[in-house]
Write a structure and sequence with these properties.
Helix content is 21%, strand content 27%. By secondary structure, the protein is α+β, with helices and mostly antiparallel strands. The protein has a single domain, classed as Alpha-Beta Complex (Nucleoside Triphosphate Pyrophosphohydrolase), CATH 3.90.79.10.
Protein backbone atom coordinates (compact mmCIF):
# COMPACT_ATOMS: atom_id res chain seq x y z
CA UNK A 1 0.00 0.00 0.00
CA UNK A 2 1.33 3.43 -0.92
CA UNK A 3 1.55 6.03 1.87
CA UNK A 4 -0.83 8.98 1.70
CA UNK A 5 0.81 12.28 0.74
CA UNK A 6 -0.85 14.14 3.63
CA UNK A 7 0.29 11.97 6.51
CA UNK A 8 2.43 9.05 7.64
CA UNK A 9 1.65 5.50 6.55
CA UNK A 10 0.21 3.80 9.60
CA UNK A 11 -0.41 0.57 7.75
CA UNK A 12 -3.59 -0.71 6.09
CA UNK A 13 -6.88 0.14 7.72
CA UNK A 14 -8.49 -2.80 9.50
CA UNK A 15 -11.68 -1.94 7.63
CA UNK A 16 -9.95 -2.86 4.38
CA UNK A 17 -8.19 -6.01 5.56
CA UNK A 18 -9.75 -9.39 4.99
CA UNK A 19 -8.79 -11.93 7.61
CA UNK A 20 -7.93 -15.05 5.65
CA UNK A 21 -8.94 -18.34 7.20
CA UNK A 22 -6.19 -20.93 7.29
CA UNK A 23 -6.40 -23.74 4.78
CA UNK A 24 -7.85 -26.95 6.29
CA UNK A 25 -5.24 -29.60 7.04
CA UNK A 26 -5.81 -33.33 6.68
CA UNK A 27 -6.74 -34.96 9.98
CA UNK A 28 -8.17 -38.23 11.23
CA UNK A 29 -10.10 -39.39 14.28
CA UNK A 30 -11.15 -42.77 15.65
CA UNK A 31 -14.38 -43.68 17.37
CA UNK A 32 -13.14 -46.70 19.32
CA UNK A 33 -16.25 -48.73 20.20
CA UNK A 34 -16.70 -51.20 23.05
CA UNK A 35 -19.71 -53.51 22.75
CA UNK A 36 -18.68 -55.97 25.49
CA UNK A 37 -20.81 -54.49 28.31
CA UNK A 38 -24.26 -54.17 26.72
CA UNK A 39 -24.83 -50.69 25.23
CA UNK A 40 -22.09 -49.62 22.84
CA UNK A 41 -19.57 -47.25 24.42
CA UNK A 42 -17.14 -44.89 22.69
CA UNK A 43 -13.79 -43.65 23.96
CA UNK A 44 -13.35 -39.89 24.48
CA UNK A 45 -10.79 -37.71 26.23
CA UNK A 46 -10.60 -34.06 27.24
CA UNK A 47 -8.29 -31.74 25.33
CA UNK A 48 -5.93 -29.74 27.51
CA UNK A 49 -6.97 -26.20 28.42
CA UNK A 50 -3.83 -24.84 26.72
CA UNK A 51 -4.87 -26.15 23.30
CA UNK A 52 -5.79 -23.46 20.77
CA UNK A 53 -8.30 -25.77 19.06
CA UNK A 54 -11.25 -27.03 21.16
CA UNK A 55 -9.70 -26.63 24.65
CA UNK A 56 -11.41 -28.33 27.62
CA UNK A 57 -13.76 -30.33 25.39
CA UNK A 58 -14.03 -34.10 25.17
CA UNK A 59 -13.25 -35.50 21.74
CA UNK A 60 -12.38 -38.76 20.03
CA UNK A 61 -8.66 -39.55 19.83
CA UNK A 62 -7.19 -38.08 16.66
CA UNK A 63 -5.13 -35.35 15.08
CA UNK A 64 -3.62 -34.04 11.88
CA UNK A 65 -1.89 -36.15 9.28
CA UNK A 66 1.88 -35.89 9.65
CA UNK A 67 4.34 -35.66 6.82
CA UNK A 68 5.74 -39.14 7.57
CA UNK A 69 2.42 -40.98 7.88
CA UNK A 70 2.59 -42.13 4.26
CA UNK A 71 5.89 -43.83 5.13
CA UNK A 72 4.46 -45.94 7.95
CA UNK A 73 4.73 -49.67 7.20
CA UNK A 74 1.54 -51.58 7.99
CA UNK A 75 0.39 -55.14 8.57
CA UNK A 76 -3.18 -55.07 7.21
CA UNK A 77 -4.44 -52.77 4.48
CA UNK A 78 -7.54 -50.64 4.46
CA UNK A 79 -10.75 -52.41 3.37
CA UNK A 80 -11.41 -51.87 -0.39
CA UNK A 81 -14.96 -50.65 0.30
CA UNK A 82 -13.64 -48.11 2.81
CA UNK A 83 -11.03 -46.85 0.36
CA UNK A 84 -13.64 -46.56 -2.37
CA UNK A 85 -16.00 -44.64 -0.07
CA UNK A 86 -13.19 -42.28 0.92
CA UNK A 87 -12.41 -41.63 -2.76
CA UNK A 88 -16.09 -40.91 -3.40
CA UNK A 89 -16.19 -38.51 -0.45
CA UNK A 90 -13.08 -36.75 -1.79
CA UNK A 91 -14.50 -36.55 -5.33
CA UNK A 92 -11.75 -38.96 -6.51
CA UNK A 93 -9.27 -36.07 -6.28
CA UNK A 94 -7.07 -37.65 -3.61
CA UNK A 95 -4.54 -40.42 -4.23
CA UNK A 96 -4.83 -43.83 -2.58
CA UNK A 97 -1.51 -43.18 -0.84
CA UNK A 98 -2.79 -39.99 0.77
CA UNK A 99 -6.06 -41.62 1.82
CA UNK A 100 -4.17 -44.53 3.38
CA UNK A 101 -1.90 -42.04 5.19
CA UNK A 102 -5.00 -40.42 6.69
CA UNK A 103 -6.14 -43.80 8.03
CA UNK A 104 -2.64 -44.49 9.35
CA UNK A 105 -2.69 -41.09 11.09
CA UNK A 106 -5.83 -42.18 12.95
CA UNK A 107 -4.08 -45.33 14.20
CA UNK A 108 -0.94 -43.40 15.14
CA UNK A 109 -2.89 -40.72 17.03
CA UNK A 110 -4.84 -43.35 18.97
CA UNK A 111 -1.54 -44.80 20.15
CA UNK A 112 -0.07 -41.40 21.04
CA UNK A 113 -3.16 -40.19 22.91
CA UNK A 114 -4.41 -43.39 24.57
CA UNK A 115 -1.46 -45.84 24.40
CA UNK A 116 -3.55 -48.22 22.31
CA UNK A 117 -1.74 -50.11 19.54
CA UNK A 118 -3.87 -51.40 16.67
CA UNK A 119 -1.70 -53.92 14.88
CA UNK A 120 1.15 -56.35 15.46
CA UNK A 121 4.32 -55.79 17.44
CA UNK A 122 7.39 -55.25 15.29
CA UNK A 123 10.78 -54.20 16.58
CA UNK A 124 11.94 -53.17 13.12
CA UNK A 125 9.44 -50.34 12.75
CA UNK A 126 11.35 -47.19 13.65
CA UNK A 127 8.32 -44.88 13.34
CA UNK A 128 5.96 -46.80 15.62
CA UNK A 129 6.50 -49.72 18.03
CA UNK A 130 3.99 -51.80 16.05
CA UNK A 131 2.74 -52.40 12.51
CA UNK A 132 -0.66 -50.71 12.11
CA UNK A 133 -3.60 -52.84 11.01
CA UNK A 134 -6.17 -50.89 8.99
CA UNK A 135 -8.31 -53.94 8.17
CA UNK A 136 -11.24 -53.27 10.51
CA UNK A 137 -11.56 -49.50 10.19
CA UNK A 138 -15.00 -48.28 9.12
CA UNK A 139 -15.23 -44.92 7.39
CA UNK A 140 -17.94 -42.94 9.19
CA UNK A 141 -17.81 -39.23 8.30
CA UNK A 142 -15.84 -36.31 6.93
CA UNK A 143 -16.04 -32.77 8.34
CA UNK A 144 -14.23 -29.54 7.46
CA UNK A 145 -13.82 -26.89 10.16
CA UNK A 146 -15.75 -23.76 9.11
CA UNK A 147 -13.88 -20.53 8.26
CA UNK A 148 -13.22 -18.17 11.15
CA UNK A 149 -11.40 -20.62 13.41
CA UNK A 150 -7.69 -20.15 14.24
CA UNK A 151 -7.03 -23.66 12.99
CA UNK A 152 -9.00 -25.66 10.45
CA UNK A 153 -8.99 -29.36 9.72
CA UNK A 154 -10.40 -31.63 7.04
CA UNK A 155 -11.13 -34.52 9.39
CA UNK A 156 -11.96 -38.07 8.42
CA UNK A 157 -13.73 -40.09 11.12
CA UNK A 158 -13.32 -43.84 11.46
CA UNK A 159 -14.93 -46.42 13.75
CA UNK A 160 -13.28 -49.52 15.17
CA UNK A 161 -14.67 -52.23 17.49
CA UNK A 162 -12.37 -53.19 20.36
CA UNK A 163 -13.14 -56.91 20.07
CA UNK A 164 -12.18 -56.97 16.38
CA UNK A 165 -8.94 -55.12 17.10
CA UNK A 166 -7.94 -57.13 20.17
CA UNK A 167 -8.12 -54.08 22.46
CA UNK A 168 -8.68 -54.38 26.22
CA UNK A 169 -11.18 -51.60 27.11
CA UNK A 170 -9.63 -51.33 30.57
CA UNK A 171 -6.13 -50.69 29.25
CA UNK A 172 -6.24 -46.97 28.46
CA UNK A 173 -4.07 -44.20 29.88
CA UNK A 174 -4.21 -40.41 29.76
CA UNK A 175 -1.58 -38.54 27.77
CA UNK A 176 -0.29 -34.99 27.48
CA UNK A 177 -2.83 -34.37 24.72
CA UNK A 178 -5.91 -36.11 26.11
CA UNK A 179 -6.90 -36.13 29.77
CA UNK A 180 -9.77 -37.88 31.54
CA UNK A 181 -9.98 -40.69 29.00
CA UNK A 182 -13.28 -42.47 29.55
CA UNK A 183 -15.89 -44.66 27.90
CA UNK A 184 -19.30 -43.08 27.42
CA UNK A 185 -22.55 -44.65 26.30
CA UNK A 186 -23.21 -43.52 22.72
CA UNK A 187 -26.84 -42.98 23.75
CA UNK A 188 -26.02 -40.82 26.80
CA UNK A 189 -23.23 -38.26 26.51
CA UNK A 190 -24.51 -35.95 29.25
CA UNK A 191 -21.48 -36.58 31.48
CA UNK A 192 -19.07 -34.74 29.17
CA UNK A 193 -18.95 -31.54 27.13
CA UNK A 194 -18.50 -32.26 23.42
CA UNK A 195 -17.91 -30.02 20.41
CA UNK A 196 -20.99 -29.55 18.24
CA UNK A 197 -19.55 -31.56 15.35
CA UNK A 198 -18.70 -34.45 17.69
CA UNK A 199 -22.30 -34.58 18.90
CA UNK A 200 -23.55 -34.51 15.31
CA UNK A 201 -21.29 -37.38 14.25
CA UNK A 202 -22.27 -39.36 17.35
CA UNK A 203 -25.87 -38.93 16.21
CA UNK A 204 -24.91 -40.40 12.84
CA UNK A 205 -23.15 -43.27 14.63
CA UNK A 206 -26.26 -44.04 16.69
CA UNK A 207 -28.39 -44.13 13.56
CA UNK A 208 -25.88 -46.41 11.82
CA UNK A 209 -25.77 -48.82 14.77
CA UNK A 210 -29.56 -48.96 14.86
CA UNK A 211 -29.67 -49.67 11.14
CA UNK A 212 -26.99 -52.38 11.23
CA UNK A 213 -24.98 -52.96 14.42
CA UNK A 214 -22.08 -54.45 12.44
CA UNK A 215 -21.43 -51.10 10.68
CA UNK A 216 -20.96 -52.37 7.10
CA UNK A 217 -17.75 -51.19 5.44
CA UNK A 218 -19.37 -49.67 2.36
CA UNK A 219 -22.09 -47.62 4.06
CA UNK A 220 -22.88 -44.08 2.80
CA UNK A 221 -20.88 -41.39 4.59
CA UNK A 222 -22.01 -37.90 5.69
CA UNK A 223 -19.78 -35.00 4.66
CA UNK A 224 -20.10 -31.76 6.67
CA UNK A 225 -18.81 -28.42 5.42
CA UNK A 226 -19.76 -24.76 5.08
CA UNK A 227 -20.95 -23.20 1.80
CA UNK A 228 -21.69 -19.47 1.58
CA UNK A 229 -21.97 -19.33 5.36
CA UNK A 230 -24.41 -22.25 5.57
CA UNK A 231 -23.71 -25.57 7.30
CA UNK A 232 -24.17 -28.36 4.75
CA UNK A 233 -24.56 -32.12 5.11
CA UNK A 234 -24.06 -34.27 2.03
CA UNK A 235 -24.51 -38.05 2.10
CA UNK A 236 -21.97 -39.67 -0.23
Amino acid sequence: MTASSDGPDNGPSLDNVKIRSPRPRDAASIMLLDRSHGPVRVLVGRRHKAHVFMPNLHVFPGGRRDRDDHRLPFHGDIHPDVLERMKTCCKNSTSNSRLRAIALAAIRELHEEASIAIGTKDGGNTLLPFLPDLTNLRYMARAITPPGHPRRFDTHFFALFTDEAGVDPDDIRDSRELEDLRWIDVNDVSAVQLPDITEIILGDLRASLQSDASLPFGRPVPFYYTRHGRFVRDLL
